[in-house]
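S.,

Sequence below, as promised.
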Amino acid sequence: MTSATSIFSPVDADLGILASNLKQLIGARHPILSAAAEHLFGAGGKRLRPAIVLLVSRGTMLNQEITPRHRRLAEITEMIHTASLVHDDVVDESEIRRNVATVNTLFGNRVAVLAGDFLFAQSSWYLANLDNLEVVKLLSEVIRDFAEGEIRQGLNRFDTELTIEQYLEKSYYKTASLMANSAKAAGVLSGVSEELAEQIYQFGRHFGLAFQIVDDILDYTASSEVLGKPAGSDLVSGNLTAPVLYALEEKPYIKTIIEREFSEEGDLEEAMSLVAESEGIARSQKLATYHSQQATEYLKHLKPSDCSQALLDLSEYVLTRLY
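The prediction came back faster than expected:
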């Protein structure tokens, strides 16, 4: 099966430069923050978001070299993403991510919050230095969306009345906004037309939603080892995602278990079992497939190249994580 890493081959060299630059951008003025950043940026991960930025950059700069501003945008994108993960882990009290200890586990909540704030501040400073107001607006919107998504998720914990539409809206804020707006920003830096910039944005939006839905399905179907965090962690924390929202329509007893916040022994296992018996996972897969297909449709507006093909492959690959 194709891997995400092989799909990124047209920008392999660019991702290598990005990895070394990220650590330099943090600087060594704050030893604990530097240690936290070293831990974060060395913890693996597919570098999916900067890879998309770089693929769009090269896919819209055919026969030309991408600019330093394109590279910096990819770095800013990864910094913003990483900052959001650090804050998420504090809010969710997560102990592991990608099978390694979280910053809050290693350094405590106080340092983790400061590290996240510092990364957001650094990314904003580098963003301003791109001297492109439209790009600044696009990425500033992402930072606002992260906060909106986290607030909505917090307010909707254990809310069995949550709709699929509200779930998708929250998924946009927490995941798809960064993919959509950073991809569009790469096109803006390349000087593409407004129409093409919007098509690129729509690709990122649908890809991001497909990616998040797949992630949410895996919380029910994958092992803790594969997930890099405990299986069922979304459900037990009251974060109700597509599989359980669909399952609630068929298995009303899940509502009782959720509303008592899994307070009785065996509640989580029973809820997971009921979701597995329902059509929740199959319907979620269908929803992810729809958004993946929409993403590929919007990519047809890019001129054919190795990079546009890689983006197409990526849109199809996102679904293979389910099997």
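The chain has a mean pLDDT of 90.

Coffee later?
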